[in-house]
From TrEMBL:
Its cofactor is Zn(2+). The keyword Hydrolase applies. The keyword Phosphoprotein applies. It catalyses: 5,6-dihydrouracil + H2O = 3-(carbamoylamino)propanoate + H(+). InterPro entries: Amidohydro-rel, Hydantoinase/dihydroPyrase, Metal-dep_hydrolase_composite, Metal_Hydrolase, Metallo-dep_Hydrolases_sf. Carbamylation allows a single lysine to coordinate two divalent metal cations. GO terms for cellular component: cytoplasm. Its EC number is 3.5.2.2. GO terms for molecular function: dihydropyrimidinase activity; metal ion binding. Residues 54-467 form the Amidohydrolase-related domain. Keywords: Hydrolase, Metal-binding, Phosphoprotein. This is dihydropyrimidinase. Belongs to the metallo-dependent hydrolases superfamily. Hydantoinase/dihydropyrimidinase family. It comes from Aureobasidium namibiae CBS 147.97.
């Protein structure tokens, strides 16, 4: 047969276009796009009838935590990452995502200096269970170790295709000072990799958290009050200045406030290579979600603890949606960071039991969402007209692929691209439904979106020409996914814009 699989009667949506079109797939790749196929052409091929629904490039979720060492690493807060590569990628597949980029993290343990060893160790975890979908790694760097930066970063880029790193401005066990940030940013810049920044002012948070605790304000709700939007506003402003000194491209992860988004937009207006990500929690949750229970012994509402916290009110959601529409935000990721709460009386299990009950400072930060990411944005953004279908694809697939060196293998529907697709239900016939956690495929015992109404859900997820999710059933297997060696960012540093001084500095520093 000419094709292995054909998708007919769909509206094929890319970041550029939305047109009725048929797709012919051969050898795992997009082969042919055509207004129609003759019966001769499709003979012998598997046929999927999209029935007029949107057909898009498979989701690329560039912010996922799986199998991550959180005890000594990410937060020093305890808590166990509930999803491994099998369960996390399974959940992603059921939600229309075909690529995840997860985090491999250096820690401050002496034995844990080598970035190469860190990536090797995380890849071994992925290989131990397999992944339903394709995956890659960002490296979290928590030291400004000159030897490691000089000797190991080039190897990570060349041999592993790890072309992005994440740096923290908060969390005691992670955060870098300004000079340390500059050291690592310069190393990133030399290696032409993208620097991801977790931008919250750690000192402000620590100071506020102590004040709150001294007043006995320790319930989970106060997590939000310990990190008001100005915390993110200050840190984004400072990171933009630091990166701007040496023209280092940065991507702010999980931006949760319009104040921070305004800093990003201002930098972009100046022509600086500043990018930003936001996540479903910042468009769907508010402070109120942390206030639901408010009991010092019940961790129910810790189900919504993430950092930055959800914004104060729903008007913030509108502003952040505007940022998705107008290009302030480059990508939309889940920040899936899974913890379980299957405790008998509202107390977390495992090593959290020994911690001070109810105090927000000891609750692991992070919420699950790799499976709900696409459908939440469909429901709240695409179906409401806040963003176009093309913008939806740009944010969920094309731009993360471009930013992290996967394009046009991923994030595109063009001949030669991987045949990774998400096919939605025809909107006319789909019955909106209320989500419950038992519909999801992660290894987490809750969803922050329990009871929320969804207006669509992926009907088919296709990975390199193979159907891995169809009509509510998983069809894929844990070893369907492959490791992705990534290239340089497609965006680069762009024109020098108004910051020609930064280009000069970047040049003489090399
Ligand atoms: O609260 C969050 N975002 N947890 C995940 C870890 C991180 O900082 O991205
Ligand atoms: Zn973060
Ligand atoms: Zn994260
Ligand atoms: Zn409870």
């Amino acid at each position: 047969p000419k094709f292995d699989l054909v998708v007919v009667n769909g509206i094929v949506v890319t970041a550029a276009d939305a047109v009725p079109c048929c797709i012919g797939i051969k050898g795992g790749k997009i082969h042919t796009l055509s207004p129609s196929f003759s019966s001769d052409e499709i003979e012998g091929a598997q046929i999927i009838d999209a029935e007029g629904a949107y057909v898009m490039p498979g989701g690329v979720d560039a912010h996922v935590h799986l199998c991550q060492d959180l005890k000594t690493g990410a937060h020093g807060l305890g808590g166990e990452c509930a999803d491994d590569f099998e369960t996390g990628s399974r959940s992603a597949a059921a939600g229309g995502t075909t690529t995840i980029i997860t985090f491999a993290t250096q820690t401050r343990d002496e034995t844990d200096r080598s970035l190469i060893k860190v990536v090797e160790a995380y890849n071994a975890r992925a290989e131990a269970t397999g992944s339903f979908i394709d995956y890659g790694f960002h490296i979290i760097i928590v030291r400004n170790d000159p030897e490691i930066l000089e000797n190991e970063l080039p190897i990570l880029v060349r041999d592993w295709g790890v072309t992005s790193c994440k740096l923290f401005m908060t969390y005691k066990s992670q955060r870098l000072t300004d000079t340390q940030l500059l050291d690592v940013m310069l190393a990133s810049q030399k290696n032409e990799i993208t620097t991801m920044i977790h931008a919250e002012n750690g000192d402000m948070i620590q100071w506020l958290a102590e004040k709150l605790e001294n007043k006995g304000m320790v319930a989970p709700y106060y997590h939000a009050l310990s990190r008001p939007p100005v915390v993110e506003m200050e840190a984004t402003n400072r990171a933009i200045a630091l990166a701007g000194l040496i023209e280092n491209p940065i991507l702010f992860v999980h931006i949760g406030s319009p104040l921070a988004a305004a800093n990003v937009r201002n930098a972009q207006t100046q022509g600086m290579p500043i990018y930003a990500e936001t996540c479903p929690q910042y468009l769907n949750l508010t402070y109120d979600d942390l206030q639901k229970f408010h009991s010092p012994t019940c961790f129910e509402n810790s189900k919504h603890i993430c950092s930055p916290p959800p914004p104060p009110g729903t008007s913030d959601h509108d502003e952040l949606y505007l940022g998705l529409h107008n290009g302030t935000f480059t990508i939309f990721s889940s920040d899936h960071c899974p913890f379980r709460y299957d405790h008998p009386h509202g107390k977390p299990s495992g090593d959290l039991v020994s911690r001070k009950p109810g105090s927000f400072r000891f609750i692991p930060n992070g919420i699950p969402g790799v499976e709900t990411r696409m459908s939440l944005l469909y429901t709240g953004g695409l179906a409401t007209g806040r963003i176009t279908p093309r913008k939806f694809v740009e944010l969920t697939s094309t731009n993360p692929s471009k930013l992290y060196g996967l394009y046009p293998k991923k994030g595109a529907i063009m001949p030669g691209s991987d045949a990774d697709l998400v096919i939605w239900h025809p909107q006319k016939t789909f019955e909106p439904f209320a989500l419950s956690n038992d519909m999801l495929h992660h290894n987490v015992d809750y969803t922050p979106y329990e009871g929320k109404e969804f207006v669509n859900w992926p009907r088919y997820t296709i990975l390199r020409g193979r159907v891995i999710w169809a009509e509510g059933e998983l069809k894929g297997k844990p070893y369907d996914g492959e490791y992705l060696k990534r290239g340089p960012s497609y965006f680069g540093t762009g024109p020098a814009g108004r910051r020609r001084d930064a280009r000069k500095t970047a040049t003489w520093l090399r």
